[in-house]
């Protein structure tokens, strides 16, 4: 009987997605007789989008057995407690999307219903004041939640990392090679197919032929295999999202290091600031319909306060995803599978989720269509959930001060998102499916930060002693603020616990 086990997996493309795939495969498969080769073109540079992450990256490191502090030192990483949004609801206003808990349930009811009632009664407290991660971030402080006692507010903190994408790729390369990954530095120039349409082999620029049982396409927006060889359709979401371009530059970081990402809205898009130990990452994401590349360059350089450390780099994209991220014996990860602007730092998460789901559904070399279909079903929901969350930031913004923001008010909105907005508007409730990356607290943070006030709140909370609830809320805010003030500044914590 012919062996049906996969014996050779070829990852095409390095960068963050490629080495995430290689490291994950190596960790799980290194003692199972599966050969893994990563072929990387020396002609392509890492883009550097995806240096701000979500908490799932910490579980990835733990699953690989990587020491957190060693990894942070090697990648010039800093801690991230969430994202602070500036000028999104209107110019001059700011709000938080923090990691971890926001408030606690009271009398068996959702915390947000009590906050909404308090608002209607004139209580000026902001939602972030009940989020431990945001309280720490606002104070510029950090302390490991793992060192907290269960009764401490720090136990509600969650965190991710900012890191240097080039250094991450190098770190994961060393990790993968130590587990037996074969690394080939050469450009793939062609591919041949079996009669059944599966990829048979790759042809390298130096004339060599590289054959595998399964191929993982991590070639970025070029999508060399999934798009170029297998001609898999790309579903374009630019009817939902206007931004299609970005300009990026790194600058000196000689100031304090805030433990959060900044997302600052501008006339034709928005700008990120990602603080690392050795530099500050800056990028301007914009719509080419309203802004030229040279205008974007000038805007970014005008706003970057410290000296630039490299030349500006431009990046164009189409929001969307492949109709199939798994097609025949090829899986697309990273930008080869789809692209969603980095507003909520989801790029690396989608790579992690993709390789995790692949390993959960690990096939034989026949690559059953049923298995591929299930993978594609799950990942389609993941992409669409994230897409809708990003659209939310634009479609409920109060800004109308430029043609860009005016057009965002007339853009298409997916039906599922319209229903979610209507439910929140009616009674401050959030409905989410099981594959939604973002918890209800995240949706509440964006709705509330944008100034969306529900018509009413859950009437069942009327059974609670609201005067007592308000006293408790006030005490909680005061306690968290006091505890945060006594903790070390983020840079001080890094210097002591994560020296580079």
Automatic annotation (TrEMBL):
Give the active-site positions. Answer: 80
Matches recorded under InterPro entries: FAD/NAD-bd_sf (IPR036188), Flavin-dep_Halogenase_NPB (IPR050816), Flavin_halogenase (IPR006905), Trp_halogen (IPR033856)
Residues bound to L-tryptophan are: 344
| SUPFAM superfamilies registered for this protein in UniProt | FAD/NAD(P)-binding domain
Q: Which domain of life is it from?
A: Bacteria
The Swiss-Prot or TrEMBL record annotates one GO molecular function as:
monooxygenase activity
Output the PANTHER family linked to this UniProt entry.
FAD-BINDING PROTEIN, FLAVIN-DEPENDENT TRYPTOPHAN HALOGENASE
What is the recorded name of this protein? Tryptophan halogenase PrnA
What organism is the protein native to?
Answer: Teredinibacter turnerae (strain ATCC 39867 / T7901)
């Amino acid at each position: 009987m012919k062996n049906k086990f996969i014996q050779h997996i070829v990852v095409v493309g390095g960068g963050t997605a490629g080495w995430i795939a290689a490291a994950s495969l190596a960790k799980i498969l290194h003692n199972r007789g599966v050969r893994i080769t990563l072929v990387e073109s020396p002609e392509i540079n890492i883009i550097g989008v995806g240096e701000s992450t979500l908490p799932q990256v910490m579980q990835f490191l733990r699953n690989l057995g990587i020491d957190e502090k060693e990894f942070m030192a090697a990648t010039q990483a800093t801690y991230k407690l969430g994202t602070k949004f500036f000028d999104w609801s209107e110019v001059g206003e700011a709000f938080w999307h923090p990691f971890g808990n926001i408030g606690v349930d009271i009398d068996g009811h959702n915390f947000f219903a009590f906050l909404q009632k308090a608002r209607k009664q004139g209580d000026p407290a902001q939602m972030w004041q009940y989020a431990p991660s945001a309280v720490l971030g606002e104070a510029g402080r950090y302390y490991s939640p793992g060192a907290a006692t269960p009764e401490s507010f720090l136990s509600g903190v969650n965190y991710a990392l900012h890191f240097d994408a080039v250094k991450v790729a190098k770190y994961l390369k060393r990790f993968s090679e130590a587990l037996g990954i074969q690394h080939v530095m050469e450009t793939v120039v062609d591919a041949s197919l079996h009669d059944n349409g599966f990829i048979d082999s790759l042809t390298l620029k130096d004339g060599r032929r590289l054959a595998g049982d399964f191929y993982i396409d991590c070639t970025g927006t070029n999508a060399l295999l999934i798009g170029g060889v297998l001609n898999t359709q790309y579903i374009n979401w630019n009817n939902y999202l206007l931004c299609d371009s970005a300009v990026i530059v790194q600058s000196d970081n000689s100031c304090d290091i805030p433990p959060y990402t900044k997302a600052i809205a501008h006339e034709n898009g928005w700008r990120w600031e990602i603080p690392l130990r050795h530099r500050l990452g800056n990028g301007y994401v914009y719509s080419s319909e309203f802004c030229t590349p040279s205008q974007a360059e000038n805007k970014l350089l005008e706003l970057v306060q410290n000296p630039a450390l490299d030349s500006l780099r431009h990046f164009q994209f189409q929001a969307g995803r492949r109709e199939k991220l798994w097609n025949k014996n090829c899986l697309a990860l990273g930008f080869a599978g789809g692209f969603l602007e980095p507003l909520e730092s989801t790029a690396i998460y989608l790579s992690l989720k993709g390789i995790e789901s692949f390993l959960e559904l690990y096939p034989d070399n026949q690559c059953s269509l049923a298995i591929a279909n299930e993978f594609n079903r799950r990942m389609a929901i993941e992409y669409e959930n994230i897409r809708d969350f990003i659209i939310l930031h634009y479609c409920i913004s109060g800004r109308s001060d430029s043609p860009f923001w005016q057009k965002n008010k007339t853009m298409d909105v997916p039906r599922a998102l319209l229903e979610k907005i209507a439910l929140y508007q009616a009674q401050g409730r959030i409905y989410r499916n099981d594959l939604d990356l973002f918890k209800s607290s995240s949706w509440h943070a964006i709705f509330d930060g944008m100034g969306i006030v529900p018509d009413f709140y859950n009437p069942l909370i009327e059974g609670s002693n609201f005067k007592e609830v308000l006293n408790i809320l006030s005490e909680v805010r005061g306690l968290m603020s006091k505890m945060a003030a006594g903790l070390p500044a983020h840079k001080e914590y890094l210097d002591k616990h994560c020296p580079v």
